[in-house]
Design goal:
By secondary structure, the chain is mainly α. It has one domain. It is 66% helix and 0% strand. It has 5 helices and no strands. It is globular. The relative contact order is 0.16. The model has no long low-confidence stretch (mean pLDDT 88).
């Protein structure tokens, strides 16, 4: 499993803020451009929301909420 998912396992959902998540990802991936970071975050959130058995219902729900509001929150 991706080390990036450690952020979601180790933090309560209230700490899943944009700045904290982006900062964490920038320390974990080699390509640190914003586009690459956001793409990785989006992919991992889909994994959490859809099928990953390591996450409880609360974290899956939070991942789904973030994905549902992805474009609006990012101003896209």
């Amino acid at each position: 499993m991706s080390k990036r998912l450690d952020f979601y396992l180790d933090n309560i959902t209230e700490d899943w803020t944009c700045l904290k998540v982006i900062g964490f990802y920038r320390t974990k991936i080699k390509r640190k451009g914003l586009k690459e970071v956001l793409s990785s975050i989006h992919k991992d959130l889909r994994d959490i929301a859809n099928s990953n058995p390591r996450f409880d219902a609360t974290k899956k729900k939070k991942a789904r909420e973030i994905l549902d509001n992805w474009k609006r929150e990012l101003g896209l």
